[in-house]
Amino acid sequence: MRLSVFAVALVLTLVLSVSYAQAQQGPQFRKSYNFAEIATILIAAYAITYVLVRKKKIDVLTHRKLWNVALLVAFAVSGVLGLLLVIRINYGWAFLQHFLMLNLHVEAGIAMAIVSFFHLHMYWRFYKCVIKRGKKCDT
């Protein structure tokens, strides 16, 4: 479990450090968000863990825990920064630069959306069962 938490932290640190470095340049230099970079890093990481599961180097449970933690971390970062942005807009309290918070919030949201597709891939049988409602669903 420690290895999976470390791997999630490493991947998300890579993703967020790219966006942080660009956010420091300021809004006048910003043309778009880092969708391609985030997607490439996350898809490559998922493909690596998926291959490791298929080769029985890591078990399925570790693979699922890793990506569930990644989904949780991306959700928490996006959610907390979203709340901080609301507090800043409504009450004028400044925690970080507005542009930096907005940039990290959006890019954590991008990571969360991509990881949610991985989550659907891992649990598609359960979702299929829930939709059909014909038999008992096992996770």
Please provide a written account of the structure:
The chain is mainly alpha-helical and 139 residues long. The chain is built from five helices and no strands. The chain has helices spanning 2-23, 35-54, 60-91, 98-122, 124-132. The model has no long low-confidence stretch (mean pLDDT 82).
State the share of residues found in helices, binned by percent: over 70%
What structural category arises from helix and sheet content? mainly alpha
DSSP summary: helix tally: 5
Q: Could you tell me the number of beta strands?
A: 0
C-alpha geometry: globular
**Strand fraction:** under 5%
Q: Which spans have pLDDT < 50 for at least 5 consecutive residues?
A: none
Can you summarize this structure?
With about 140 residues, the chain is mostly helical. It has five helices and no strands.
List the helices and strands and how they pair.
Layout: H1 2-23, H2 35-54, H3 60-91, H4 98-122, H5 124-132
Helix pairs in contact: 1-2, 1-3, 1-4, 2-4, 3-4
Tags for this model:
single chain; 139 residues; mainly alpha; 5 helices; 78% helix
